[in-house]
Design goal:
The protein folds into two domains: about 30 residues, no CATH class; about 70 residues, no CATH class. The protein is about 20% helix and about 35% strand. It is built from one helix and eight strands; from the N terminus they run ββββββββα.
Length: about 120
């Protein structure tokens, strides 16, 4: 069975142990613009140029929006994928924690009153 290796931000490679061949793994660059985790049932309304779509989305659906306008639709909806949902929820929690820690450090200490005599 071939193996796909992904290392950090480097391009993935495919290794075939039967032939000892290594090649770039097949992929499609999709230019993901936004990833939205739906928090409550809603109607997604998407318009771009002459394209117009309306679709119902549910809690924990994931809307992936692309930059590239050559796709048939400029978005896709991922439904029922707990790996994606758990990963996004963990990211959101970490991001919120980071923001709160940053905000806590922004408290400005009150200025001490000057008690010295200043010559005139």
């Amino acid at each position: 069975m071939k193996k796909i290796y992904i290392h950090g931000r480097h391009d993935a490679v495919m290794f075939d142990p039967e032939t000892d061949q290594v090649q770039e793994a097949p992929y499609t660059r999709t230019s993901v613009r936004d990833v939205l985790l739906v928090k409550e049932p809603a109607k997604l309304i998407y318009s771009s140029g002459e394209k117009h779509y309306e679709e119902n989305v549910d809690v924990d659906d994931i809307i992936v929006i692309f930059y590239n306008g050559t796709f048939e639709k400029g978005y896709t909806i991922v439904k029922g994928n707990t790996d994606w949902v758990n990963n996004l929820k963990k990211y959101e929690a970490e991001e919120q924690k980071r923001k709160e820690e940053w905000a806590a450090k922004q408290v400005i200490e009150p200025q001490a009153e000057c008690c010295c005599d200043v010559p005139a």
